[in-house]
Write a structure and sequence with these properties.
By secondary structure, this protein is of the alpha/beta class. Among the domains are: about 1-100 and about 225-335, HUPs (Rossmann fold); about 110-215, Glutamyl-tRNA Synthetase, domain 3, CATH 3.90.800.10; about 595-700, no CATH class; about 705-765, Arc Repressor Mutant, subunit A. Helix 23 (about 710-720) packs across helix 26 (about 750-765) and helix 25 packs across helix 26. The longest helix is centred in the last third of the chain and has 23 residues, at about 570-590. The structure holds adenosine-5'-triphosphate and magnesium ion. Adenosine-5'-triphosphate binds near residues 39, 51, 71, 266 and 267.
Length: about 775
């Protein structure tokens, strides 16, 4: 353990720390020495990470040492590949054992000596029962065991047999060395536990030197003692072994103070299998692509998936250490990685399922190179930037377009306007399909004035990610999901392999990413905005053939946010109806040929066919449209607003009956951003009810733009000086009260989110 190990974000206290505090206070130990003792028979998994963070963390926080010890006493399952991978993983996680790298196999000679000590003390004997007989003689939890007929062999005979076992004179299973415990002990482990067995196997380090190998219980406590471990921490299932641990050390005559064993709850995660045996089976049956498959809970798999060591340590800190087994929600691990990546990784644009968008009013062959930040603006130093090419042919994600949008759809749809991230607003004018009816291309127009947040101030609800078709590069996107469908795979005695998730890996083979990504080395992590967190696969990604793994999806907070902002079912229902009307008109537009008048609006004003058809549906409607253009409204805004207003005013007849100049005034205010969508809607409803258009527009201006909000806030704060001081003293819950008061003062017209933002600014000033 050296000092460059990571500092803990916080060292939460736990029962082990309390024990150690006591020991140090009472002088039982001067220095804490722990160990992490993996058996090199598989790769480390996230459960091991918990043990590593605990053992190395205790050593770090108490200024002690943590050993890395390979518990390599079972030669048939162990190998050097595992030894290498385990060291790599511990280091990657951020811990360093310094000089303290050990192998239990290095102690074979010493362990053998302790065995002879026990024999000489009459505390161990060579038994010659078969395996099955040993089991049958052991008894049960309710029944005492029976002594083996070989139990009373003399010390000389035991020593002789044990030495001949070592010399290789016997076959496997012929003899076994057992502790001479108590065959009626309530703890079954104490009923003459086997200590050494004959195994004619090649060991990865000691080769063929040995043909007897110590069993876990014998080797572990003595290895701890040899290394002068003070606190030997293991998982709860070893609780019953503690008595044997102490018994062996007590009888083997080890130096004092002898190590003590403490148990904590092992980590179990939902939707995850953690047993090395099962993980090995997944690998051997080629259900996954090796131990480092990004779906595996192994450290190698998590690393390749894009997890950072920091996120895994934060996760381990967060779950804490207890003495009660429980199942941890895998979402907590996902939370940890999101939190870490959100703060520091690059943000790029890429699309998974490209849908072509042609910007019909953008010149062929030209490119606008936009300049976009690589990270969110935060802190003093401005983030680095990258060039982002925009051209006539783009791709958006197919899932961001709906020909028949559901209610609350803020993405692209026929006639809708959206913003392209870091670029321009576009409006979808027409939808091109192939013979099968599949949408193959969208024809859109862009508004050059909206570059960099939109100079004309027009706000749109949706911002989409996109790439330039000709500049972006292909990337194989591996979209990983949970490996198992069951929350507890293998529960109820079933085979976990029965609950494999068939879609744990989806490959987006046609995915495209902005050209900047091609300059990044394999292993780079980034967020694809609105898509998820990714890492360029450290193994398979190469220049000219990019491969990226999805680490984790972005939190899908969208639906919840909507619910919070817009709780009224009434409004949702109105939106739904409006969307349905749009859909119907879009469908009509897509099916039948356009009239000459409608076609002229499509070609001349860039309207979508659905809107063009609607606008030319009657001379009254065309009159509203023409008046709007004359007053300065944009054609697409006027047409879309008209189509959407059928519901607002209570039907097409009512819309046709509106004074053209009044409708035009509202449509123009909407175009210029003097009104937002809901304001325009309210203004038009007022106009339909007979109000003067100029007044209706004035009354429905977004409050935050007029200064009325600031005024209302000032007077609310003044009237509630008491609450203000309580808020400033730390009672932040009062923010809800202030929002309520301000909204009330404005007759309900303030936008609660904006009000809250401004209130916080005023209160925290
Ligand atoms: P498995 O049962 O999956 O084969 P293991 O416990 O045999 O795992 P070891 O290599 O012996 O694996 O484990 C090394 C250390 O890691 C032990 O101290 C063990 O207690 C700890 N450990 C293993 N699995 C977990 C887990 N899920 N949570 C916490 N600690 C664990
Ligand atoms: Mg083990």
């Amino acid at each position: 353990m050296t000092t460059d190990s990571p500092a803990p974000s916080r060292a939460p206290t736990n029962f082990l720390r309390e024990i150690i505090d006591d020991h140090l206070a009472q002088g039982v130990h001067q220095q804490v020495v722990t160990r992490f003792p993996p058996e090199p028979n598989g790769y480390l998994h996230i459960g091991h990470a918990k043990s590593i963070c605990l053992n190395f963390g205790l050593a770090r926080d108490y200024g002690g040492k943590c050993h890395l010890r390979f518990d390599d006493t079972n030669p048939t399952r162990e190998n050097d590949e595992y030894v290498r991978s385990i060291q790599e993983d511990v280091r990657w996680l951020g811990f360093d054992w310094g000089e303290n790298l050990f192998f239990a196999s290095n102690y074979f000679e010493q362990l053998y000596g302790y065995a002879e000590t026990l024999i000489r003390a009459g505390k161990a004997y060579v038994d010659s029962l078969t395996r099955d007989e040993v089991a049958a003689f052991r008894g049960s939890l309710t029944e005492a065991g029976r002594p083996s007929p070989y139990r009373e062999r003399s010390v000389e005979e035991n020593l002789d047999l044990f030495r001949r076992m070592r010399a290789g004179e016997f076959e496997e299973g012929q003899h076994v060395l057992r502790a001479k415990g108590d065959m009626s002990h309530p703890n079954m482990k104490m009923r003459d536990l086997p200590l050494y067995r004959i195994m004619k196997a090649h060991h990865h380090r000691t080769g063929d030197t040995w043909c007897i190998y110590p069993l876990y219980d014998f080797a572990h406590c003595l290895s701890d003692s040899i290394e002068r471990i003070t606190h030997s921490v293991c998982t709860l299932e070893f609780e019953n072994n503690r008595e044997v641990y102490d018994w062996i050390l007590d009888n083997a005559g080890v130096p004092q103070p002898q190590p003590r064993q403490y148990e904590f709850a092992r980590l179990a995660l939902t939707y995850t299998v953690m047993s090395k045996r099962k993980l090995l089976e997944l690998v051997e049956k080629k259900i996954v692509d090796g131990w480092d498959d990004p779906r595996m809970p192994t450290m190698a798999g998590l690393r390749r998936r894009g997890y950072t060591p920091e996120s895994i340590r934060a996760f381990c800190d967060r779950i804490g250490i207890s003495k009660h087994n429980s199942l941890v929600d895998v979402e907590l691990l996902e939370w940890a990685i999101r939190g870490d990546l959100e703060a520091r990784e690059l943000r790029l644009l890429g699309v998974m399922d490209p849908l072509e968008v042609v910007i019909t009013n953008f010149p062929e062959g030209e490119t606008v190179t936009l300049d976009a930040p690589l990270r969110p603006e935060e802190g003093e130093a401005p983030p680095a930037r990258r060039p982002l090419p925009f051209s006539r042919r783009l791709y958006i994600d197919r899932s961001d377009f709906a020909e028949t949008p559901p209610s609350g759809w803020f993405r692209l749809a026929p006639g809708a306007e959206v913003r392209l991230r870091w670029a321009f607003n576009i409006v979808c004018n027409s939808v091109v399909k192939d013979e099968s009816g599949r949408v193959v291309r969208l024809e859109c127009t862009y508004d050059p004035a909206t570059r960099n947040q939109g100079a004309d101030g027009r706000r749109v609800k949706g911002t989409l990610h996109w790439v330039s078709a000709d500049h972006s590069v292909p990337v194989e996107a591996r979209l990983y999901d949970r490996l198992f469908k069951d929350e507890e795979p293998g529960s109820g005695g079933r085979d976990p392999l029965e609950s494999l998730n068939p879609s744990s890996l989806e490959i987006a083979a046609a995915a495209r990413i902005e050209p900047y990504a091609a300059t990044l080395p394999a292993g780079t992590r980034f967020q694809l905005e609105r898509v998820g967190y990714f890492i360029l696969d450290p193994k398979d990604s190469a220049p000219g053939r990019l491969v990226m793994n999805r680490t984790v999806t972005l939190k899908d907070g969208w639906a919840k946010t909507q619910e919070a902002i817009d709780p009224e079912a009434v409004r949702a229902e109105r939106d739904r109806q409006r969307a349905e009307e749009k859909v119907r008109s879009a469908q009509r537009g897509a099916e039948a040929p356009l009239s000459d008048a409608a076609a002229a609006l499509v070609s001349g004003h860039g309207l979508g066919p659905a809107e063009a058809r609607f606008v030319t549906g009657s001379s009254a409607l065309l009159g509203l449209f023409e008046a709007s253009l004359a007053a300065g409204a944009s054609p697409t805004t006027a047409a879309t607003f008209m189509a959407a207003s059928v519901q607002t005013v209570g039907g097409r007849d009512a819309l046709e009956a509106l004074p053209a100049a009044s409708f035009a005034a509202v449509a123009t205010a909407l175009t210029k951003g003097e009104l937002n969508a809901s304001g325009a809607k309210a203004a038009l409803a007022a106009v339909a009810a007979g109000k003067n258009a100029a007044e209706a527009v004035a009354e429905n201006r977004p409050v935050s733009d007029t200064g009325a909000l600031e005024g209302a806030i000032a007077s609310v704060l003044e009237k509630n000086a008491d609450a203000v001081s309580r808020y400033r003293a730390g009672n932040k819950n009062l923010i809800g009260f202030f929002v309520g008061q301000t909204v009330k003062a404005l007759g309900g017209k303030a936008d609660p989110a904006e009000t809250r933002r401004q209130l916080e600014r005023a209160l925290d000033a």
